[in-house]
């Protein structure tokens, strides 16, 4: 059966901890689990098979750290490791095999030194090999940086049509260690087109539950839960987890009530945990994702629901700030960023950015400004550009879900809208002067659908009162104060 159809109709049971099982099988502490695919393939396959026998539908390859940064100097090519890992997983007899991809191990700019394009290339190499080996899905897990996840998702979308699953790992604060909230993750990754989103690692099912509630409140696609076996006790020098398989499985129905339909385990779990969860789900109805009409933007760490009270800062635009023209002519990014910071300090919640001006290298200036702004303020941005190269470069490096200003003219719909759709943005547009608002909205909705953008990601501006009801019936939303 096709994986997407399976997920739509059935619970998808994932596996448990691979490291836990390999350590029990004799893997030396401190060694690379990924190399076991080459040195002891029978051991890796045996672990996968134990999970399959316990009720796992989709095993996840032993490739969590199989990237060129983490495995530098190991003596083996990444492709060699991934090819062996997929073969080992497939030999278990599982219904489905997913290519496991974990964090690269180096922080992306501005938190670290790794560029977005370097991250994209690293993920593309892994995914290209996994696809050639015939995996059924791309599985991104234990992520903490939303921009890093974005690089991986884009690489997957560019290279294949396989389902992409993504799980982030949260601390007890409800954020990842880089500050990503479940709301920001859901808003961004759904826009990028992942097939399922969820939470794994760090915490046990009890501690994850309040974070899962927040994720469920803003998610309209299948959800994944893959907790640890409780919290580790390190007093003996090794991690001993505090939840039994029965206690672990007791939380399954609580997650089921929230709409989760993809279950598994992470650190400390073994086949007994998977078997217990499978038993707990027996006879239960598979929840179907509920569409949620949410009008919100986010940066990598700040989530803002738009309303009539939302404060927009509009001074990063030559039409609203004459002093900015000189800075643009001189490609003075520092002044542009200072303007954004000033408005953030004054209480702005969204920063409007328009750097379009004759003789300005906008394709260089706009993405540079976006990167620099996101390095010093955590506010979402509204981007306005008629230059497709500038818009794409800015959206590619943007961390989160921005708002993109469009018009309803043919150039905007055929050139700019597909770019906004690819990068998961929301868009806003106003009917042309004198044009019929309903007809213009229908045109935009149709063009968006062709790009895979749902109508709820469209905000319409300047809609006459007598046409608002008809316009809203198309599934779009109204720009604040419209």
Mind explaining what this structure looks like?
This protein has 482 residues and is an alpha/beta fold. It folds into 2 domains: 3-281, Homocysteine-binding-like domain (TIM Barrel); 296-478, TIM Barrel (Alpha-Beta Barrel). The chain is 42% helix and 15% strand. It has 19 helices and 19 strands. It has helices at 3-9, 18-24, 36-39, 41-54, 78-90, 116-132, 146-159, 182-192, 205-217, 245-250, 252-258, 271-281, 322-329, 333-345, 362-376, 388-397, 410-422, 437-450, 468-472; strands spanning 12-13, 58-60, 96-101, 137-143, 164-168, 196-200, 223-226, 232-233, 240-241, 260-263, 296-298, 303-305, 312-316, 350-353, 381-383, 403-405, 426-429, 458-460, 477-478. Strands 1-10-7-6-5-4-3-2 form an 8-stranded parallel beta sheet. Strands 13-14-15-16-17-18-19 form a 7-stranded parallel beta sheet. Helix 15 (362-376) runs parallel beside helix 16. The longest helix is centred in the first third of the chain and has 17 residues, at 116-132. It is globular and about 70 Å long.
């Amino acid at each position: 059966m096709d994986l997407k159809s399976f997920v739509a109709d059935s619970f998808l049971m994932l596996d448990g901890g691979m490291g836990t099982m390999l350590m029990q099988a004799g893997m030396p502490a401190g060694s690379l689990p990924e190399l076991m695919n080459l040195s002891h393939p029978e051991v890796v396959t045996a672990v996968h098979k134990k999970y399959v026998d316990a009720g796992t539908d989709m095993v996840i390859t032993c490739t969590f750290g199989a990237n060129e940064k983490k495995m530098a100097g190991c003596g083996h090519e990444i492709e060699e490791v991934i090819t062996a890992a997929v073969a080992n997983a497939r030999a278990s007899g599982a219904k489905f095999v997913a290519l496991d991809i974990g964090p690269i191990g180096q922080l992306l700019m501005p938190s670290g030194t790794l560029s977005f394009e370097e991250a994209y290339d690293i993920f593309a190499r892994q995914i290209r090999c996994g696809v050639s080996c015939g995996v059924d899905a791309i599985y991104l897990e234990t992520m903490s940086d939303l921009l890093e996840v974005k690089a991986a998702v884009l690489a997957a979308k560019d290279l294949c049509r396989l389902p992409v699953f993504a799980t982030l790992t949260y601390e007890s604060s409800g954020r990842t260690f880089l500050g990503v909230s479940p709301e920001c993750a859901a808003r961004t990754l759904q826009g990028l087109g992942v097939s399922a989103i969820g939470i794994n690692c760090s915490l046990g099912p009890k501690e994850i539950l309040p974070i899962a509630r927040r994720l469920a409140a803003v998610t309209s696609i299948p959800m994944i839960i893959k907790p640890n076996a409780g919290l580790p006790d390190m007093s003996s020098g090794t991690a001993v987890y505090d939840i039994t398989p029965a206690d672990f499985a007791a939380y399954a129905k609580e997650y089921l009530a929230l709409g989760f339909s993809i279950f598994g385990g992470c650190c400390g779990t073994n086949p007994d945990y998977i078997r217990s969860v499978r038993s707990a789900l027996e006879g239960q109805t598979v929840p179907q994702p509920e569409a949620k009409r949410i009008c919100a933007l986010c940066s990598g760490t700040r989530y803002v629901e738009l309303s009539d009270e939302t404060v927009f800062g509009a001074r990063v635009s030559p039409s609203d700030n004459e002093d900015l023209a000189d800075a643009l002519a001189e490609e003075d990014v520092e002044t542009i960023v200072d303007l954004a910071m000033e408005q953030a300090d004054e209480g702005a919640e969204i920063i409007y950015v328009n750097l379009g001006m004759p003789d300005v290298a906008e394709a260089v200036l706009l993405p540079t400004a976006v990167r620099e702004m996101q390095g010093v303020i955590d506010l979402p941005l509204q981007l306005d550009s008629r230059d497709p190269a500038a818009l794409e470069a800015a959206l590619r490096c943007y961390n989160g879900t921005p708002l993109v200003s469009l018009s309803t003219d043919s150039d905007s719909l055929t050139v700019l809208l597909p770019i906004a759709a690819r990068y998961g943005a929301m868009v806003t547009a106003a009917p042309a002067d004198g044009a019929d608002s309903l007809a213009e909205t229908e045109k935009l909705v149709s063009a968006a659908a062709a790009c895979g953008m749902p109508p709820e990601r469209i905000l319409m501006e300047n809609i006459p009162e007598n046409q608002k009801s008809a316009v809203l019936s198309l599934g779009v939303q109204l720009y604040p104060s419209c």
